[in-house]
């Protein structure tokens, strides 16, 4: 067999290799409707080059996928996004972004298995795409926080008005974020970690 240089398997980049000191891992899932910024968030906060499964949107999706409000979007996640953050030398956080289109939601079952919790990304221009997402998390009993992704042309609403519109219990944290920014996405994950920690504390 004639192997040319382009056929050579080089393996992962050095910075993508899992540290040899890692002994434990936890999993968080980033969910939301179509086009709310899940792939962007995973990419902005991951320490490795994220794995994405974005495919170009075609005419086959017309009448099937609801792209109202994000008509300029040309690609969509069809399986998952994957990223990684080293919490310490021993502990690794794995990030999984779910597909937003409802026809791919059957993939959520596997993605949620073993997850500590979830981040629900919300676009205030299209709050309605978040209703079913939140409902599915509540049905599964998955703890979550809500992150309002601040798109430049998105309307601003008081926190309590958003909480009421999303029918969120008072104890569920809400935070504004810009999914494009590493620091902002990190703050969302920290909010989730603090919330999970509070749930684990024994009742007084």
From TrEMBL:
UniProt cross-references to InterPro entries, sorted A to Z: Gliding_Motility_GTPase, Gpn, P-loop_NTPase
Protein name: ATP-binding protein
GO molecular function: ATP binding
Keyword list, A-Z: ATP-binding, GTP-binding, Hydrolase, Nucleotide-binding
Family: Belongs to the GPN-loop GTPase family.
